[in-house]
Design goal:
Layout: E1 2-7, H1 12-22, E2 28-33, E3 46-48, E4 65-69, H2 74-82, E5 91-96, H3 103-108, H4 114-127, E6 132-135, H5 140-148, E7 153-156, H6 165-173, E8 181-185, H7 195-202, E9 210-215, H8 222-236, E10 240-243, H9 249-257, E11 261-263, H10 272-280, E12 284-287, H11 292-300, E13 306-307, H12 316-320, H13 324-338, H14 340-351
């Protein structure tokens, strides 16, 4: 039986449902550990655990795989290092989420933290044992190779969309006109959104009829949130609208439907769910061209996105312009990758893949 280790996150339930409904009941067991506070239902294929000691590696038979979804919980990493002998004869699959492969970059930039350094040694050891890497952005694997010296095989990865596609279609049909350009900055309060730099890029549009919407309801520290709000209000006045309360998926989708342009200034792969929803709704997106997100969506898959860093040199008319051809290109792409059969095909590729060491 394959084992999956996944935290309680907002998109975890959709993956659990995929395993529950689309694979035989005796082929996969999901251990979900309580990192988040999302209300996830009970499923036969899923066991909710409070301690990593509840993981039973004896359930792994010959040819089975151990999947780790997201690799940034150092408690889990240390636990897996201590118990490596129990699954060393099975295929080890790492599902890269993005944040889990960037701490090594901090260390190599001279930002030395003793505890982080030790934790990263454990992580590097385990990543070196991985046979397969599944990535949401294809070039995240190149980041892992560069900083962790990994040597496995890369596969594309998707989870079923955590959105109600019928609701999105309905929102598109019932689009409400508004007289201002609503600009979304970032997807969370995490510093990796680089909100203030994004607002600096937009500052020369402050006299235009715009509204800056900033999601600050989760993922950040209170002091940073205050800095972002203070800067936004100083530069844009009442045109700056912070969102401080967590919105359930239906309300969040409704908010995104009322956005015209999204400016994502993340310095790494992040906000993919937001990128998907906004693109499907026909919104214009700016993301940074120096990220793996750009490499995946724009360079490889030809999505019609724009470089965030180009905003500071753009005229307002160019900033807001977005052709119908570009809209339909993005909509068609995300309609394809949201199809459950397509998502399942990516997992089938790995479920049925047998790793062979090239040295043998």
């Amino acid at each position: 039986m394959n084992l999956h280790l996944i935290p309680n996150e907002k998109f975890s339930e959709k993956f659990i449902q995929l395993i529950e409904y689309d694979y035989p009941s005796d082929t996969n067991l999901v251990y979900m550990y309580p990192k988040g506070k999302f209300d996830i239902g009970n499923y036969n294929c899923c066991k909710k655990i409070k301690s990593f000691r509840e993981i039973d590696f004896k359930k792994l038979d010959k040819g089975d795989k151990l999947y780790v979804h997201g690799f940034y919980d150092y408690g889990l990493i240390r636990f897996l290092c201590l118990h490596y002998r129990e699954f060393k004869n099975n295929e080890f699959v790492m599902v890269i989420w993005g944040a889990d492969i960037y701490n090594a970059i901090l260390l190599n930039k001279g930002e030395f933290h003793p505890v982080l350094f030790i934790n990263e040694l454990f992580k590097k050891y385990l990543l070196g044992k991985c046979h397969i890497f599944m990535t949401f952005a294809c070039t995240d694997y190149d980041i892992a190779k560069k900083w962790y010296k990994v040597n496995g095989k890369q596969f594309d990865c998707l989870y079923p969309p955590n959105v109600d596609i019928a609701q999105l279609d309905d929102l598109k049909l019932k689009k409400r006109p508004h007289d201002k350009c609503r600009i979304l900055i970032g997807n969370s309060a995490a510093k990796t959104n680089n909100h203030i730099d994004a607002m600096r890029y937009l500052e020369h549009f402050k006299d235009e009829n715009i509204e800056i919407v900033c999601i600050l309801s989760y993922g950040g520290q209170e002091e940073y949130i205050k800095q972002v709000i203070n800067y936004g209000r100083e530069k844009f006045g009442d045109k700056f609208v912070p969102i401080l309360n967590y919105l359930p998926p239906s309300e969040y989708s409704r908010l995104l439907s009322e956005i015209d342009i999204a400016v994502f200034n993340h310095n790494r792969q992040q906000a993919t769910a937001n990128i998907e929803i906004l693109s499907y709704l026909g919104k214009k997106l700016f993301i940074r061209s120096d990220t793996t997100t750009w490499d995946h969506y724009v360079i490889r898959d030809k999505c019609s996105f724009y470089d965030t860093k180009s905003i500071q040199n753009m005229k307002y008319d160019d900033f807001v312009a977005f052709s119908e051809e570009s809209i339909q290109n993005n909509v068609a792409y995300f309609r394809k990758i949201w199809d459950l059969n397509y998502v399942k095909s990516l997992w089938d590729d790995v479920m049925g893949f047998e790793y062979k060491d090239e040295k043998n």
